[in-house]
Amino acid sequence: MNKENLVEVVKTISIRGRFAFGMVCIEQFIKENQLNNNLLNEIIDVLWEFTSSNELDIWEEKINYLIPEHVLSHHTKFISSFDKYLNNKDFKEIYKLYKSLDKTFLIMIKKVLEIGTGNLYGGTGKFSKWTLDPTIDIANLAEFRLVNIPNIEDFKFSSFSENNGWGKKFNREQLL
User: Domain of 118?
Assistant: First the structure.
């Protein structure tokens, strides 16, 4: 799909749908690169809470300790604000995991988190530019790094016209 068509398709997909697309790309990357890791699976589970949560402010608190730049830049000093959801030992484990992961994969995580947090405290406008751009970035990364690229069209079920751009809540099992 060319860039103009991709942008137009993404504009019709809700923020939750865009997030889900990013997560499916991440899961495909994990599958294709055989990244079997319990900690990584736990992180993926926390990220997926976004699409079904009623309390995105609490979700945002949980994911603050998962943002790759935060973890990698604070690796020498455990940040006390993380301790509500994470202890120092777990923080160090996440740091080790992130250091071992492909940079493209970490960028995909970052972009998914940008989708999840881009409009938490502001209006969405006509198509949520704050979540449109990182969704396009993920699509481009997927095209570059994945053998089996998830079809963005499959996420149209979650329409931007629903719930002020957020779309209806759903969980990852509903996508299977």
Answer: 3-156
Tell me whether residue 29 is in a domain: yes
Rounded to 5°, the CA angle 100-175-115 comes to 55
Burial class (CB within 10 angstroms; exposed 0-12, middle 13-18, buried 19+) of 57:
exposed
CA 99, CA 74: separation in Å to the nearest integer?
Answer: 12
Select from 29, 77, 19 the least CA-distant residue to 51. Answer: 19
Assess if residue 26 is contained within a domain.
yes
Q: For residue 128, what are the contacts with CB-CB under 8 A and spacing of at least 6? A: 15, 118, 119, 160, 165
Number of domains in the chain: 1
Q: What is the mean pLDDT of the chain?
A: 92
pTM over 0.90: yes
